[in-house]
Structures are given as C-alpha cells and as structure tokens.
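This section describes the prediction task in plain terms. A model, or a person checking by hand, is given the sequence of a single protein chain and must write out its three-dimensional structure as a string of tokens. No templates, partner chains or ligands are provided. The sample shown here is typical of the held-out split.
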Amino acid sequence: MSEPSVGSLINLSWRKTKEILLPVEFKRWLKILLIVWLAGQGAGGNFSLPNRPRSFPSQKQAQVQPVSPEASSAATTETISAQSLETAPSPTLTPQEKAKEAFKKLGPWLFVLIVIFIVLALLFMWLSARFQFIFLELVIRRDISIGESFRKFGAHGNSFFLWSWGFIGVFLAGSLLCFLPAILFRQAAWLFLSLPLFVIFLLAAAVLGVVVSDFVAPMMYQDGLKTMGALNKFFVLKPKTSDLFVYFLLKIGLGVLAGVLTFVIMLVVGLAILLVGLLALLLGVVLVKIFPFLKVSLLVLGAITGIVLFALSFGLATLFVPIFFRIFSLGFLARLIPEYNLLHIPLTDSGA
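The expected answer:
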C-alpha cells in the first residue's frame, strides 16, 4: 500500500474545504469564523491651576499716598527679596529622577493595565485551547454546535491550556539560559555564541509547537488523551523524520502562497471598505451641517463601524485558508500514522 502523494493531499484538502464552505450561508459562515478566530487560527492627568496674579496698587493710590524715604527703602528691599525668591532656580532633576516621578504618577494605572492584559491573555488562551478541538470537530464531522462541543472538549482544552503555559515557561527559561553567559560576562564573544544557540532553540521550539498543534491535538481528539500522553505516543509511534521534514517544507511553501493571496484579498477588501467609507463620509458631512452636535458621535461610530466591517469582510473572504491547512495537516497525519486517519481518506495514491 503506497502512501498518498503530496499532490493528492493538496487536492483532497481543497475539495473538502469547498465541501465545508459551500453553499454560501452567511449565518453559518459567521459561526465558522467565530470558531476559527477563537481557535487562534486565522488586539488620570495632572492638571495645574494658573498662578493667581498679584495685586498691585493702583496709580491713584500711588499718587495720593506720600511715601517717605525710609518706607521707600524698606519697600525696595522687600521687593528685591520677593523677586529673588521668585526667580530662584528650581533644582534640576536627573533623567532617573524624572522617570521615578513619571512612574509614581502612572504607576497605578500601569499596574491596572498590566493586570487587565494578563487576565485577557489568560482568557483567550483558555478559550483558544478549547476551540482547537471545536475546530477539529467542525472539520471532521462538519458539526458547528459550539455550546455542546464546548462542554464536550472541556478536559481536552484544559490539558492543552496547561501544556501551553508550561511550554511558554520552558521557552522563556531556555531563552534566558541561551543569553545568560552574555548577560553575566558582558562580552561580545559570548553574545556571538548565544545568538546561534538561541536560533537553534527557537527552531526546536517552533517545530515542537507545530507538532503539538497539527498532529498531537488530533490524537488527543481521537483517543481522549491528555497532551503529554498524546505527545509521548506520537514519538513512540516513530513517524518518519523525512516525512516530517517534507511536511514543514510544504507548510512553509504553502504558507508563503497563502500569505501572498491573503495580502491581495486584504487590499481588495480594504479598497472596497474605503469606497463605502467615502460614501458614508459624504452622508456624515451632510448630517453634521444639519446637526453639528453629532460630529463627535458620527466620527466614533464611523471608525468603529469601519473596523468591524473590515475585520468581518477580511475574515470571511479568507476563511478558506485556515480550513485548508487544518484539513491538510489531518491528511498528512494519516500519511505519517495510518491509524489516525480521522478524515477516512483513501491511503492508496490514486494519482490524483
């Protein structure tokens, strides 16, 4: 029994992509787009009051009230003393002190923003881990019942989420170790040694990440295994290294083609949204002339509407890309390990 060729897998992936997306149903496409996005396949001022002006005697008072020489001398002395105090130079702050002052003012807000960012990142990673398997369910069974699948793959998603955090921690620690000699000794020679180590480590981490996302997750889906168990099983089954190398080369090449096509689609969608925006701008100018108080509201509404329309239009127009790559990875998994033929594709090459 011969393995399916690369050409047959590409043809199969494109055919099944069309089967999932056709016929065009806007509501169904929106649900698929939501799944794809969530799977990660496809973002107080210090005011100072002006100084109170000092009161000066009026010209009439200056003319009416006589001034003795002693009083004039005392007044002159007081005036000079006051002017000296006012014009005394303030102490110059160093850049470090200025940075500390700025941090004191922005510190609480910066802390709040960091906490919000971390919470949102954790939430998205948790959802993305769960939707990885909902996306697989969509591709394999054509099922887009999000609520039921969300509950069904709870254990899978939680395991994938915890593994992802462990992977991030190991990656950060490994990156630090690569540059640790350069940090400790502060010599250029150590930096030249650290950079190649970091590049090798980065490539190894990228390969492992792709293996887990493209091959280990489908094994978890079929066998109900946790992430580490499925990863160990993948290496125990010993897929051909040459086939893995071919897969990565193909993914890079297809990724470049998809990137070019996606860029063209982005330009077309952007031009279309721009034309619609110009028409809306003309309408907005007319409304602002009639109702001037709507200027700010219309600007905010127009900006939000433009961003949402562009995101939806671009996402729907490129929806075939992540589906194609997910199907292609499943087809290649069947070529690597025939027992994981989740798409039930013929494993003999028909020459297609």
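For orientation: The radius of gyration is 33 Å.
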